[in-house]
Structures are given as C-alpha cells and as structure tokens.
Amino acid sequence: MEEQEYGTAPEMPYGLNSDRASIIEKINPDEIVELIRMRLMGKIKDPQTGKWITNPALKDNSISEVGAWDITNLLLSVSNANTSLSKLDDKTIRKRAYSLMEKAVNMMLCNWREYKITNTAQLGYVSEIVFSIAFITLKMADAEGIRKMITSMYSENRSINEMGTVKSGKKMFR
C-alpha cells in the first residue's frame, strides 16, 4: 500500500486565540467592583500616588468599609464571567436585578449602624448603584450576546484552520 503524505495543520493566526481569551478576561468584574467599593466608602484614587484616599466632599454620604464590602460581595453574585456567558431572558434579568437591589436595601436597613447609614439618600444612592450594575451585567447575557460572540470567534478560528488543512492536504488526492 502506498504511503500518503499528510500536511500539518497550520498554526492559529496570530491574535485570534488571544483575542478570545482577552475578551473573557475583560469580563472579570474585580476592577469595577473594587472601584464601586472604594467609591461607596467615599474614596478616590490619588492621581500622583495611585493610592485610594478619602475625599472630604464624599465623606458625609459614604458608608462603612463593612457595608461597602457586603454590598459589593452581593454584586459579585451577578457580576462575573459565568453570568455574562449565561443565557438569560429579559424577565429573568429584571427579576434578578430587582431582587439584588431589594436585598441590598434590606441589608442596609438591618445593619444601618454598622454600615454607617445616616440618611435615606444613602439608601437610594446605594440601591441605584446595585440595581444598575446588576441590570447591566445581566443584560450582557440577554440573548446570549457575549456567548454568541465568543462562539462565532471560535467558529471563525476553526474555519481558518480547516481551510488551511484542506489546502495543505491537496497533495493527498493527487
């Protein structure tokens, strides 16, 4: 029997695999959750040092460190890559975002001393932040938006690989 000559599969085009990984890494919510946590505590980043400092103008409406951590930990239940890659419908998204906001308000009411809640404006402010972040994050999963984008990138990579294999495999059929 005659030996067949097989071509090797071409390497992935530069950047396509790293683009997909990069998109998934960018979904990571740690950065925005850290920003929200610090802002809830009335802190801003010093442009010269890069360190978080208390802004006297925000001090009166800030909440305690414990409160900021509890609220942002609540947000992490939806602000994660798994949620963004899920398949959710609009009704589920709205229900979940509202539920998180309601839970945050209940936590603030039950722990008002520990969280340093001193006025009703703080309740509204924090609840709006929780609802907005939860809703926006969950909307990323609406109609599988990110999931479809990543799947299409994978399909595109696969098509390019298969096309390269067919071209290099032409010798096999001669």
Task: Kindly describe this structure.
The structure is a single chain. With 174 residues, the chain is mainly α. It has one domain. The chain contains 8 helices and 2 strands, in the order ααββαααααα. It has helices at residues 16-26, 30-40, 65-75, 81-84, 90-110, 112-115, 120-139, 145-168; strands at 43-45, 52-54. A two-stranded antiparallel ribbon has the order 1-2. β1 and β2 form a beta hairpin. α3 (65-75) runs antiparallel to α5. It starts with 15 loop residues before the first helix and ends in a 6-residue tail after the last helix. Mean pLDDT is 78; it is low at 9-17.
Distance between the termini: 16 Å
Number of strands: 2
Question: Any idea what the radius of gyration is?
Answer: 24 Å
Please tell me the total number of domains. 1
Q: Which percent range describes the beta-strand content?
A: under 5%
The tally of helices reads: 8
3D shape: flat
Question: Uncertain runs with pLDDT below 50, 5 residues or more?
Answer: 9-17
Major sheet: arrangement of strands: 1-2
Percent helix:
55-70%
Structural class, by secondary structure, is mainly alpha
Largest sheet, strands/sense/barrel: 2 strands, antiparallel
H-E string: HHEEHHHHHH
Mean pLDDT: 78
Key words describing this protein structure:
two-stranded antiparallel ribbon, flat, 174 residues, single chain, 8 helices, 2 strands, mainly alpha
Outline:
The protein is mainly alpha-helical and 174 residues long. Helices cover 61% and strands 3% of the residues.
